[in-house]
What we know:
Elements: H1 17-21, H2 25-35, E1 43-48, E2 57-67, E3 70-86, E4 91-103, H3 105-108, H4 113-127, E5 132-144, E6 156-167, H5 177-191
Antiparallel strand pairs: 1-2, 2-3, 3-4, 4-6, 5-6
Helix pairs in contact: 2-5, 4-5
Protein name: DUF3000 domain-containing protein
Region (Disordered): 1-26
Pfam family, one: DUF3000
Amino acid sequence: xxxxxxxxxxxxxxxxxxxxxxxxxxxxxxxxxxxxxxxxxxxxxxxxxxxxxxxxxxxxxxxxxxxxxxxxxxxxxxxxxxxxxxxxxxxxxxxxxxxxxxxxxxxxxxxxxxxxxxxxxxxxxxxxxxxxxxxxxxxxxxxxxxxxxxxxxxxxxxxxxxxxxxxxxxxxxxxxxxxxxxxxxxxxxxxxxxxxxxxxxxxxxxxxxxxxxxxxxx
Length: 218
């Protein structure tokens, strides 16, 4: 996976050694873990500017599941770090995500779809043996119906998953961010309509960070 020159929320972007040295070592290692994730083909990832006020340190990626020139689903994953800990997180790291896709009519008609979508996230984490806590989120469906000059368009339904969870910290206080990113990409692939794969099936492709037309920003 190509090295990502993302931005930290304190302004360090990996190009200034003095600024980079001021970033806590556990956070730097967690970011390196994101850069080393092995992901299934069809997922394109780019680093993007993280939010400024959610935590002292943040790193963000945006992704799209691509089929030819079509984006089947897109989303953003943000890694937050507060060395002092956070009462609501019950830890020093937090992962926050927004994922969305347009649904086929058959899927949109399924009343159990919100529960199924949430299970895609928790199932992907658990399939990789990842310990996590304080998971929370929403699954929202919005339908559009067209009239007048747009009446020929068929109704469209978009689904949006907003979620956050606390990855359990391992050696040196660093969570396995590589595996968490792989699990998140499995979620975005499933919401795009691709069949699920097991944790070991991603070895057939390593995602790169190309310069591409990015998805709409959350």
